[in-house]
Amino acid sequence: MFIQTETTPNPATLKFLPGQTVLEMGTADFPTPESAVKSPLAARVFAVPGVTGVFFGSDFVTVTKEDATSWDHAKPAILGAIMEHFQSGAPVIEGEAAPSGHAEHDGEDGAIVHQIKELLDTRVRPAVAQDGGDITFHGFERGVVYLHMQGACAGCPSSTLTLKMGIENLLRHYIPEVTEVRPVNA
């Protein structure tokens, strides 16, 4: 098994590409070791000293490390953990995977929220996945769109610029009711 790695805009995060499917559908975010109890793969990666976050996409695993940990030390151990997992035949996530994606929205702004989610799914999420992360809809209130950033996007130095200059401008262009975009911690 050959696992490729790619850098992300977040220097604390690397994207690992095992060359096979990681998740059939959606994404899975594990911001803490405690959140990884249902994922044998995430638990293995969290066993590597210095790992602070694990995120799964369709064909990648994004790993975030603490600042004091060097990639020179962590990367070989993470590669080993991912390789051991896929060779073990264990599932990536045990039981039913919790659906990750956009939050539900009930109310009078349903048509606007539908447009927001459509633009996120077609224009934003594919580009963000290339960088090892995901951005999902969290809410819409009085012209403000609240988005949840995951994987490489969470804590990325350029995420504020991405939100304000990229996503906010895109949404405001297509949906005049949108006045601002803000991140949330879910």
TrEMBL record:
Residues annotated as domain Scaffold protein Nfu/NifU N-terminal: 3-89
GO MF annotation: an example: iron ion binding
InterPro entries: FSCA_dom_sf, Nfu/NifU_N, Nfu/NifU_N_sf, NFU1-like, NIF_FeS_clus_asmbl_NifU_C
Pfam families: Nfu_N (PF08712), NifU (PF01106)
GO aspect biological process, one term: iron-sulfur cluster assembly
Taxonomic superkingdom: Bacteria
Name the UniProt record assigns to this protein: Iron transporter
Native source species: Thioclava dalianensis
